[in-house]
């Protein structure tokens, strides 16, 4: 899968952006809401996972909602940002929380590891569920990340993720263009492409859906404040240097011209949701093959002679 193109994302800048925003509490108006919508989708799937990886866990905000759904889970949180992981360690490992006091028996130990989404160093087939909330679009090689998730999932285990899509921040891009400002905004993968990538990386029965969430603001300044809280712009080819007051003023003026009849300014977020199964595999001479590829329209007759392979004739 490494032949697929990389997205123009600087991973070091991603870590820097989230280090500045640690503990990421201000962004939970979106991250927390999407986590609840993912849990609602998960409620329709009959699984009882024990070993769960929270890929791109940040400061561990999804831990309590996941533990409320699966009280006996063995939780592993993975993130590339050391500052956020330190917050998670302090909040959930060093100091026992309300959940610990509520239960009459100890909860399973928590594990937080600093690693790249595409290189977790976790054992093969060690997870029952990979959960990832709004993290995949921060990685330049989502196809490699999906391959890694498949590697660490057990047979017939589930991956569930959310990611921002191409319709995200369309008002911001329009304002930047209208103001004549020179910079490049983030690119996002279309949900249909994610479905194709899951099939190519060996998942089965992928399901993708998306929704548009529209945030409304009374001031352009508050819109930009929330935009900053959500993570910034780690594009490798973005405008060099910091944006000055004049640059910001022109952007605000362009956003002001987008006011709707009710006086609000809108910011669109296209959120894609995906889940798929790690198919059971059979090891053959050409490597691992999903069992789902061995489908027949009817049972084989045990008394029939074995099939023969013959070359095509020129007339065929």
* Unreliable residue stretches: 291-302, 304-316
Give the H and E element order: HHEHEHHEEHEHHEHHEEE
Class by alpha and beta content: alpha/beta
According to CATH, the fold-level topology of the domain at 11-165 and 189-210 and 271-290 is Rossmann fold
Instruction: Estimate the global geometry from the Cα principal axes.
Output: globular
Arithmetic mean pLDDT: 87
How many strands? 9
Provide the spatial order of strands within the biggest beta sheet. 3-2-1-4-5-7-6
Tell me the CATH architecture of the domain at 11-165 and 189-210 and 271-290. Answer: 3-Layer(aba) Sandwich
Biggest sheet architecture: 7 strands, mixed
How many DSSP helices? Answer: 10
Would you state the CATH class of the domain at 11-165 and 189-210 and 271-290?
A: Alpha Beta
Strand content: 15-25%
Percent range for helical residues? 25-40%
Kindly provide the radius of gyration, computed on alpha-carbon positions and rounded to a whole number of angstroms.
23 Å
- Give the terminus-to-terminus CA distance: 36 Å
CATH superfamily label of the domain at 11-165 and 189-210 and 271-290 = Vaccinia Virus protein VP39
């Amino acid at each position: 899968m490494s032949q697929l193109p990389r997205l123009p994302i600087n991973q070091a800048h991603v870590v820097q952006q989230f280090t500045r925003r640690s503990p990421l509490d201000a962004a939970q108006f979106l991250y927390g809401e999407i986590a609840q919508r993912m849990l609602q989708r998960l409620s329709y799937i009959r699984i009882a996972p024990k070993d769960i990886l929270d890929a791109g866990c940040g400061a561990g905000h999804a831990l309590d909602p996941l533990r409320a759904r699966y009280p006996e889970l063995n939780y592993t949180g993975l993130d590339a940002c050391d500052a956020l992981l330190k917050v998670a360690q302090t909040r959930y490992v060093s100091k026992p929380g309300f959940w610990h006091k509520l239960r009459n028996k100890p909860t399973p130990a928590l594990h937080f590891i600093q690693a790249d989404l595409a290189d977790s160093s976790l054992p093969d087939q060690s997870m029952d569920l990979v959960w990832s909330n709004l993290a995949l679009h921060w990685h330049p090689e989502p196809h490699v990340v999906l391959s890694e998730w498949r590697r660490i999932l057990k047979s017939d285990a589930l991956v569930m993720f959310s990611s921002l899509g191409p319709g995200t921040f369309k008002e911001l891009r329009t304002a930047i263009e209208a103001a004549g400002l020179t910079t490049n905004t983030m690119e996002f993968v279309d949900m249909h492409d994610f479905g194709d990538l899951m099939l190519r990386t060996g998942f089965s029965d992928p399901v993708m859906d998306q929704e548009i969430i529209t945030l409304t603001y009374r001031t352009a300044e508050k819109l930009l404040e929330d935009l900053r809280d959500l993570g910034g712009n780690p594009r490798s080819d973005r405008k060099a240097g910091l944006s000055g007051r004049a640059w910001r003023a022109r952007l605000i003026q362009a956003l002001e011209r987008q006011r709707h009849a009710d006086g609000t300014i809108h910011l669109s977020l296209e959120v894609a949701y995906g889940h798929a199964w790690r198919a059971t595999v059979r090891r053959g001479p050409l490597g691992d093959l999903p069992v789902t590829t061995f489908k027949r329209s009817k049972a084989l007759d045990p008394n029939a002679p074995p099939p023969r392979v013959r070359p095509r004739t020129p007339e065929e």
